[in-house]
Write a structure and sequence with these properties.
With 279 residues, this protein is α/β, with parallel strands linked by helices. It is 34% helix and 20% strand. The chain has a single domain (2-245), classed as Alpha/Beta hydrolase fold, catalytic domain (Rossmann fold), CATH 3.40.50.1820. It is built from 8 helices and 12 strands.
């Protein structure tokens, strides 16, 4: 069994090209006995701390390039190996987890987040100074965790879906009322539509100016972050409040005595493509 776990960890490292996340290696234990490995970098004064949750089959190393960007801005981070991944394999590997069930180990990954939050609290970092950032499966876990930590300073979801291994996002986004960042690529119509639905759920829960939706042509999860979305996400981490934008207006000809200003209807946007996904 130990040889199997070691081989699995080595293969996980090889898959990410031995990319390194700069910082202090740390570990903490969940309430159900998982030893969670992570890398921690403290924030500069006044900056937030990103709690980074990777996709299925990945590890904290897949955030290596992104954490370099965070460090340049003084943003702190705690990058986890979720249970069954990377070096967090003292009780097994994710391939053996049940794929279904509201109490499977994928849903129990919120306990990994709980342990991480306890670790950050011990470092003097308040709940409102932490932002959950998840990619793929990690996005679903981040959303579920945010419903249990409603005071966190933000929630960023990269290619979230409505259901990943029975980790559900819609119920979570009906609870969390803070700032939300969602990114998805349009080339995968299914995931883009699901991300659009989640955007609308978050908007109905959080309200005007609380939700940022970023799009790209292709990629997903960590690849989306590395290829297109990192600058937008870093900027959002520092200034998450979306500024008020006045609608475009069109002026009718001056000779028309009934001249008025009317908003221009949206076109070629995600809103136009999916105007009533929640109806």
């Amino acid at each position: 069994m130990k040889k199997t776990l070691l081989l699995f960890a080595l293969l996980s490292c090889a898959a990410t090209g031995f990319a390194q996340v700069k910082g202090k290696p740390v570990s903490f234990t969940t309430q159900d006995g998982w030893n969670i490995a992570a890398v921690y970098a403290a924030p500069e004064k006044g900056q937030k701390t990103a709690l980074l949750l990777h996709d299925l089959g990945k590890s904290h190393r897949d955030f290596a390039a992104f954490t370099d960007r965070l460090a340049q801005r003084g943003i702190g981070y705690l990058a986890l190996d979720l249970r069954g991944h990377g070096q967090s394999v003292n009780k097994g590997v994710y391939a053996a987890f049940a794929k279904e069930g509201v109490d499977n180990d994928f849903n129990k990954m919120v306990r990994d987040v709980n342990a991480a939050m306890d670790f950050l609290k011990g470092k003097g970092i308040a709940e409102e100074e932490v932002v959950f950032v998840g990619a793929g499966l990690g996005a679903n876990v981040a959303a579920k965790a945010a419903s249990l930590w409603p005071g966190v300073g933000g929630l960023a979801l990269l290619t979230p879906v409505t259901n990943a291994r029975d980790v559900l996002t819609i119920p979570a986004l009906r609870v969390y009322k803070g700032q939300v960042f969602i990114a998805a690529a349009a080339d995968d119509k299914k995931t883009f539509l699901e991300a659009s639905v989640l955007r609308n759920v978050a908007f109905l829960t959080s309200g005007e100016g609380q939700v940022t939706f970023a799009t790209a042509y292709d990629k997903k999860g960590h690849e989306l972050l590395d290829a297109w979305t990192a600058p937008e996400l870093v900027q959002w981490l520092q200034t998450p409040q979306k500024p008020e934008i006045n609608p475009d207006i069109v002026e009718t000809p001056a000779e028309d005595p009934a001249a008025v200003y009317e908003p221009v209807a949206p076109s070629d946007t995600e809103d136009a493509l999916f105007p009533s996904v929640l109806q």
